[in-house]
Amino acid sequence: MLDCLSFQKATGETNTYLDEIFQNGILSVDTFFYLGGLLVTYMTLGELEKNRYNFRLALILRYIRLTIPLAFAIGYVSTLLWPPINGPMSELLGSETGCSENWWRHIIYINGYEYARKLFHTC
Question: With contact defined as beta carbons under 8 Å apart, do 77 and 100 qualify?
């Protein structure tokens, strides 16, 4: 963000409100993650005080909460995304079959344990 501000001062460019939203987007993302973590911590501490916290149930709910959007994203990438992509730079995105062959690695969260040469051709 500081580089953008110094560039604008040097060139004398003026910003629109849309430029400000994009330049300060990192602040919005950090605030979102901070509030999410604060909410999870507050709810967990409340359950720990009442001795009702179930760690296994928390892990299962977290897995479900994260896996459902991931499954939809993998389904989109492996079915609907590849047909419109066709051009000289399409090879940089990986192979079309990578996501349809390795989707299960992403669903059980072991996709980071593949060999480095195969990482480029996954979802």
Answer: no
